Amino acid sequence: MTTTLLLAFALMLVLEGAMPFIAPAAWRETFRRLIQFSDGQIRFVGLTSMLIGLVLILIFS
């Protein structure tokens, strides 16, 4: 179980690092827009992301 969690964390880091590596200007602009969101909008994006992740885990496990 620990190995699987560490592999999942490593994959997350690789995927999150791909955007700033491939397109740093687009990544910077995305964050510029993101800081203009209200707390509620950011929470909604986070909740949506978690729910999609959970659904994908249920589908593929």
How would you describe this structure to a colleague?
This protein is 89% helix and 0% strand. With 61 residues, the protein is mainly α. The radius of gyration is 14 Å and the shape is flat. The two termini are 14 Å apart.
Compact summary:
This protein has 61 residues and is mainly alpha-helical. It is built from three helices and no strands.
Give the helix/strand layout.
Layout: H1 2-22, H2 24-34, H3 39-60
Helix pairs in contact: 1-2
Query: What is the typical, i.e. mean, pLDDT?
Result: 93
Coarse shape: flat
Low-confidence stretches: none
Number of strands: 0
Instruction: Kindly report how far apart the N and C termini lie.
Output: 14 Å
Instruction: List the total number of helices.
Output: 3
How many discrete structural domains?
A: 1
Percent strand equals under 5%
Q: What class would the helix/strand composition place it in?
A: mainly alpha
Features:
61 residues; mainly alpha; 89% helix
